[in-house]
């Protein structure tokens, strides 16, 4: 099949990652459609995108055309069929394997034959998602980092059957979005979360065991290791439910005790304290940022 030329991108899921990816896609000149089953989530996503784009525009980091593309040119809607015209579909739905498998089968049935389907999953097997479609060679992992408009990295993950053409096209799209790419093989957590999540988990064990306060643990990592955020603040930023879901995948698929999610993390997720997005995690949040 001829190499796919990407002009239209559909992003599935209007959460933090989906709206960030849609924003960068639109400001980079791709005709972008953001799709979510919730009209409220789309409304919130549009407002987040507006705020982020205005901020970057006022700082001179986005020109007028990029601003217009995101604020006026981007489409959104609740019907998955809106993805039918896309050359590249980027799935950024909740980190839940059965849900993603179902979504991949649905997207495969409605997408153009030469369209590529990517997942922004942080830990689920790209090979498994590809196997839910009849186009496994056109399925790839494109793992963006939060906040997507600011973070320069995309981790590209090749599934067992991902073709070299698909990798080349995804690479070209990432570069057009101004991102730097590193490739990872399809292994649980890939590179980013294989390394990041055990660090966050260990920080939570340190808190649970009273090795230090949250401020001390984060302070040591910020001032001692030059991390922009301490691991507990970062966990709140990512979402404690997301951290737990990723650790569960690492633990069950790699089968080693070192990935066992900290009981305090489980307890906080069970209590509904999911970090910034719920206003409470290791810190409390009144608006944006630490309270
Ligand atoms: N859009 C536009 N501007 C944004 C923005 C966004 N989405 N997010 C932050 N900014 C801007 C802020 O407005 C601020 O601008 P001013 O300096 O003009 O006020 C600037 O970026 C810096 O932000 P802050 O002052 O709030 O704080 P900061 O200097 O600590 O930077 C940060 C914020 C970029 C998030 C930084 O703390 C950081 O890099 N943290 C680590 C992030 C990280 O590790 N991300 C990866 C998480 S893992 C992941 O995403 C993958 C996974 O699978 C779990």
From TrEMBL:
<dbReference type="InterPro" id="IPR036291">
    <property type="entry name" value="NAD(P)-bd_dom_sf"/>
</dbReference>
<feature type="binding site">
    <location>
        <position position="100"/>
    </location>
    <ligand>
        <name>NAD(+)</name>
    </ligand>
</feature>
<dbReference type="GO" id="GO:0070403">
    <property type="term" value="F:NAD+ binding"/>
</dbReference>
<feature type="binding site">
    <location>
        <position position="277"/>
    </location>
    <ligand>
        <name>NAD(+)</name>
    </ligand>
</feature>
<feature type="domain" description="3-hydroxyacyl-CoA dehydrogenase NAD binding">
    <location>
        <begin position="9"/>
        <end position="186"/>
    </location>
</feature>
<keyword id="KW-0520">NAD</keyword>
<comment type="pathway">
    <text>Lipid metabolism; butanoate metabolism.</text>
</comment>
<feature type="binding site">
    <location>
        <position position="95"/>
    </location>
    <ligand>
        <name>NAD(+)</name>
    </ligand>
</feature>
<feature type="binding site">
    <location>
        <position position="122"/>
    </location>
    <ligand>
        <name>CoA</name>
    </ligand>
</feature>
<dbReference type="GO" id="GO:0006635">
    <property type="term" value="P:fatty acid beta-oxidation"/>
</dbReference>
<feature type="binding site">
    <location>
        <position position="36"/>
    </location>
    <ligand>
        <name>NAD(+)</name>
    </ligand>
</feature>
<protein>
    <submittedName>
        <fullName>3-hydroxybutyryl-CoA dehydrogenase</fullName>
        <ecNumber>1.1.1.157</ecNumber>
    </submittedName>
</protein>
<dbReference type="InterPro" id="IPR006180">
    <property type="entry name" value="3-OHacyl-CoA_DH_CS"/>
</dbReference>
<feature type="binding site">
    <location>
        <position position="59"/>
    </location>
    <ligand>
        <name>CoA</name>
    </ligand>
</feature>
<feature type="binding site">
    <location>
        <position position="146"/>
    </location>
    <ligand>
        <name>NAD(+)</name>
    </ligand>
</feature>
<feature type="binding site">
    <location>
        <position position="122"/>
    </location>
    <ligand>
        <name>NAD(+)</name>
    </ligand>
</feature>
<feature type="site" description="Important for catalytic activity">
    <location>
        <position position="143"/>
    </location>
</feature>
<dbReference type="InterPro" id="IPR022694">
    <property type="entry name" value="3-OHacyl-CoA_DH"/>
</dbReference>
<dbReference type="InterPro" id="IPR006176">
    <property type="entry name" value="3-OHacyl-CoA_DH_NAD-bd"/>
</dbReference>
<dbReference type="InterPro" id="IPR013328">
    <property type="entry name" value="6PGD_dom2"/>
</dbReference>
<feature type="binding site">
    <location>
        <begin position="13"/>
        <end position="18"/>
    </location>
    <ligand>
        <name>NAD(+)</name>
    </ligand>
</feature>
<dbReference type="GO" id="GO:0008691">
    <property type="term" value="F:3-hydroxybutyryl-CoA dehydrogenase activity"/>
</dbReference>
<keyword id="KW-0560">Oxidoreductase</keyword>
<comment type="similarity">
    <text>Belongs to the 3-hydroxyacyl-CoA dehydrogenase family.</text>
</comment>
<dbReference type="Pfam" id="PF00725">
    <property type="entry name" value="3HCDH"/>
</dbReference>
<feature type="binding site">
    <location>
        <position position="52"/>
    </location>
    <ligand>
        <name>CoA</name>
    </ligand>
</feature>
<feature type="domain" description="3-hydroxyacyl-CoA dehydrogenase C-terminal">
    <location>
        <begin position="189"/>
        <end position="285"/>
    </location>
</feature>
<dbReference type="InterPro" id="IPR008927">
    <property type="entry name" value="6-PGluconate_DH-like_C_sf"/>
</dbReference>
<dbReference type="Pfam" id="PF02737">
    <property type="entry name" value="3HCDH_N"/>
</dbReference>
<dbReference type="InterPro" id="IPR006108">
    <property type="entry name" value="3HC_DH_C"/>
</dbReference>
């Amino acid at each position: 099949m001829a190499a796919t030329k990407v002009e239209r991108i559909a992003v599935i899921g209007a959460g933090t990652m989906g709206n960030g990816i849609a924003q960068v896609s639109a400001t980079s000149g791709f005709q972008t459609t953001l799709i979510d089953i919730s009209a409220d989530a789309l409304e919130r996503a549009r407002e987040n995108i507006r705020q982020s784009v205005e901020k970057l525009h006022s700082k001179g980091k986005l020109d007028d055309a990029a601003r217009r593309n995101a604020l006026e040119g981007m489409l959104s809607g609740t019907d998955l069929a809106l993805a039918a015209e896309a050359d590249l579909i980027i799935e950024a739905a909740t980190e839940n394997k059965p849900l993603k498998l179902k979504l991949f089968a649905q997207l495969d049935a409605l997408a153009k034959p030469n369209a590529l389907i990517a997942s922004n999953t942080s830990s689920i097997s790209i090979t498994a998602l590809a196997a839910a479609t009849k186009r496994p060679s056109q399925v790839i992992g494109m793992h963006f980092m939060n906040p997507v408009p600011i973070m320069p990295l995309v981790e590209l993950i090749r599934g067992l059957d991902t073709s070299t053409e698909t990798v080349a096209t995804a690479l070209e799209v990432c570069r057009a979005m101004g991102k730097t790419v590193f490739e990872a093989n399809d292994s649980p957590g890939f590179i980013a979360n294989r390394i990041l999540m055990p660090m966050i988990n260990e920080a939570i064990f340190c808190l649970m065991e009273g090795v230090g306060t949250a401020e001390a643990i984060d302070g040591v990592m910020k001032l001692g290791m030059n991390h922009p955020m301490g691991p507990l603040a970062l966990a709140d930023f990512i979402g404690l439910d997301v951290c737990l879901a990723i650790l569960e995948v690492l633990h069950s698929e790699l089968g080693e005790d070192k990935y066992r999610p900290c009981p305090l993390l489980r307890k906080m997720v069970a209590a509904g304290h999911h970090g910034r997005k719920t206003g409470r995690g290791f810190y409390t949040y009144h608006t944006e940022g630490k309270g």
